[in-house]
Amino acid sequence: MTQTVVIVALALFAMLMAGIGIYSARQSKTIDGFLLGGRKIGGWMSAFAYGTTYFSAVIFIGYAGKNGWDVGFPSLWIGAGNAVLGSLLAWKLLARPTRRMTKVLDARTMPEFFEGRYLSSGMKIFSALVIFIFLVPYAASVYKGLGALFGVLLPDISNAFGGISADTLCMFFVAVLAAFYLMLGGYKATVLTDFIQGIIMIIGVVIMVVALVANPQVGGLTKLFERLRDWPGTGGRLVSIFGGDMWNFLMFNILLTSLGTWGLPQMVTKFYAIKDERSIRRATTVSTAFALIIGCGAYFVGTMGRFFVESDASGAPVGGFDAVVPTMLMRAFGESIWGNMLLAVILLLVLSASMSTLSSIVLTSSSAVSVDLIQYLRPGIGKKAQVLLTRILCILFVALSFIFANFNFAIIMSIMAYSWGVVSGCFIGPFVWGLFKKGITRTGAWAGMLGGLCTVVVMTTVTMLTSPALSDGVYAAFKAASASSPTFAVTAMGVSLILTPVVSLFTKKLDGAHVKKLFDKTEAV
What we know:
- The chain has 20 helices and no strands.
- The chain is mainly α.
């Protein structure tokens, strides 16, 4: 019964998303329309596009499963940090200057911003390569999160497809659907689907939290708190205010998942596309509320994993952290028709979160090649050819990330942390300082980019080489090092933010007339 309900829900969802793609196709015939929706996206749409790109299956399956299990109630600080640092302050500080400066530069992508801001075509090429290469594993983490959930909810579906695993079939379904509506409708299709998916996410999170708390295995809020407080071997940290001995781990994850968004191209391009400053004010409020509901809701759900999943001798969940939330949902709601219907809603919640994130990643990465690399190699390429190439590259990127997701890499949370660490570590310094400080130089921007990248690479390499697990092979050493991936990522962002202005103090300034034009507020409306 569970599988039938889930399949019906998936079919209806797929038809809706495909219909939006077909509807949006006529508004995405130019490269500006395909990538930014003509810079005419309103506040509500922009807010939902930002929020749904922010949260994917990675948070519901990877982060909520692990942090909810290890940290407990204090993991809600991550959700609060996402709302305040990752949404409220990001919109307050970055949205207006980003929209204004990208209009002055006529920049549609982050590599175009770097090229125009720092007068460097080399920086454009380098940043485009970083985006295309390192967002592939990020997209793969989204696939793997969905695969982990589908593998539990649809265990028998592989029998109908020659023994192909349920998680692989799920990832293939998502890949085809995302490629279809994104290839047709571009950014316009993305924001329309994001709005619908965002509503599904809010409804799904509220229902999931209420239903799990009311489940007999939990027994209500009071019982939940009391049992976690007295859970053997935890020393009360699962209900402490700041996470007890897990505080450092908690802080690095707050900074990674909150401040990291300031340097991620798929996030900041939402500021490029918004139509006016009034819309920015509305989007700030809506996106903050959205992040608070989804972020805190996800981690709250994760805290209940211990009531449904057994632990092994080391205290870790049986089946691994990525299986905590899927197993909990199946055991909580898999026994009745009403529970099955609830499972279908939750599945659509996670699917919606993932599809929206995946679409933004694909669009960002594809444009990095079609607009930033190809335009440099073939300056005379026509606009129609660019649009066609971007559509083709959307399909290619979806295929590459699907293939990557089928490899047996480390847990979902670590894949995402490495991707965020490299991309945001490279870009956050040159991007943020470039918006606010006139004296940032080309050399300073290069120092921030290369410093962030090298930090992640060097810290990972050193940790692997000094790990006892190296005797079992490179993959074992990488898996051991992945436990520190949030630390690597946050350190890389700090290095980028420090190196960019410091190196700029001692290096050649950009042309004064160029800088004056960039910071003249009358140049853009």
